[in-house]
Amino acid sequence: MEGNIKLIRDDGLRLDGRANNEMRPIKIQTGVVQRADGSAFIEWGANKIIVAVYVREAYPKHAQNIDRAIVKARYNMSGYSVEERKRPGPDRRTMEISKVVSEALSSAIVLEKLPRAEVDVFIQVLEADAGTRIASLTASSVAVADAGVPMRDLVVGCTAGKADGKVVLDLSKDEDNFGQADIPMAILPRTGKVVLLQLDGDVTEEEFNEATSMMMEAMPRISELQKNALMDKYSLEDGE
Amino acid sequence: MVSKMPMDASAVLSEIRKGFILESIKTGKRLDGRSLDDYREIKITENFVPKAAGSAMVEIGKTKVVAGIKVEEGDPFEDSPDSGVMALNIELLPMAFPTFESGPPSEQAIEYSRVVDRGIRESKMVDTSKLVIESGKRVWMIFVDIDVLNYDGNIIDAATLAAVTALKNTVVPASKIGQKDYALPINATPVSITMAKIGDELVCDPDLEEEQVSNGRITVTISEDHNIHAMQKGDIGEFSLDEIRKAIKTSSNIGNKLRETYLR
Prior knowledge:
The complex is a heterodimer. Chain A is of the alpha+beta class.
């Protein structure tokens, strides 16, 4: 889908005015689905994603792991979330995203503390504007923590890619559609270990290294927002 | 559901066997005698299914897959009127492994398919601009169907190798519409290399037992332009950035050798 659309302006900034290593604004809130054990709402640029977490005994019984929990994330897009209506229900793309998000969360959750349990993570993308899998994962880990599930760390994600041949952080929709590469990545910030990594497009080894260091630099800031979202909810409750 | 390997009596490794594999890999040796970077023996049979427009059987050790291509007329996508269409699908046949089931594709099958598809698509292997019959109206559609017949680890690499070989011997049946048949226009030869993390080591081309003891898998697809066109971290597990950089180097080195040996 590469076209002749110019993604970097003459002044060196991107079409939306950001510098190459600048993120879009991010807002995270918890406790937004009161019925659930834990929940979170994230606004990441124009992305709007709500996540609810339920922890229960896995069912049917033969699906249980006797010594640890299983994690089932379900990434789902609303029909109105994208330009052309998205037909509701899972498709191949959303099933792959559900799988890699489940696996990333599984690395952060102390699975052995919840034998026979299932951690259900329901992700609903209300508005999509590039980078939804990473925004979903970032919000999901806050929602899982909000549910009181024991975790080694929060999972924090980010994307980088290539627009007009330049490495840029946090791709916009245009950059995602017309750029030359998309690299979503998520880490456990305490150790810096990578728990989600995908790439498609065309990058050299050097460009890959530049993209990953850009993301590594940005992720602690996103992680602060995650922690603040949790602190906000629980410090308020203390005060009441 | 996330479970690294299907949980079933015939698919569970004993703890003793696991320990044995782990201890051996710590010393740089694998149970089948390979070093950590060694690939298993590869056998490729081109044109395995002459009824297909292109085909190949690929065996990596005991893992066995067949890729077959069908080329049919169809409508282009609205947003790309001057481009043919490629669709790729991997079937994990029930005969290949006790816990593979018939029916709609599993998450595992979908993930594998999409990783193989991305490597081929993003390397621009197939020149889809040369598959247009009438701009905006009719194009050739390339269907790549890959069947896994026997599973002993590393389906992603076997499927990529089979698909790439089959695409390279594919003929577009243009005589059906009164033109001359022509070889599918090919621009690149992507090779995917998959590694498993076992203990603190990266192990190339894992077999089934190695997949079962591993903590995470990583696939890197590189074509002869030396650029990376697809990457995927899969399964529960974590990698350091250094390990990922090492995986890229290994993929580049071994991929080049495989391309020269098997994909000329």
